[in-house]
């Protein structure tokens, strides 16, 4: 398993946290997602052979948030 931290802007509440968590968790290969609203960071544990950072970024952006 690989780990990545994504910097996400635009998250401000529990709904935002759930939207990002749900979007990432639905991707095949994502094992765990931890969202920090205060820091604007999302930690993802994933299988690199099943999902890419680009796919994760797209999933978050599709929810209306920006990934740095």
TrEMBL record:
Gene3D superfamilies: 3.30.70.100. Residues 2-68 form the HMA domain. PROSITE patterns: HMA_1, HMA_2. GO terms for molecular function: copper ion binding. The keyword Metal-binding applies. Transmembrane segments: none annotated. Pfam families: HMA. This is Copper chaperone CopZ. It comes from Lottiidibacillus patelloidae.
């Amino acid at each position: 398993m690989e780990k990545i931290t994504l910097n996400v802007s635009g998250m401000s509440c529990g709904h935002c946290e759930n939207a990002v968590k749900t979007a990432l968790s639905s991707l095949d290969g994502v094992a765990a997602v931890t969202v920090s609203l205060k820091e604007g960071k999302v930690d993802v544990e994933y299988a690199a052979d099943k999902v890419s950072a680009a796919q994760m970024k797209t999933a978050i952006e599709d929810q209306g948030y920006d990934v740095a």
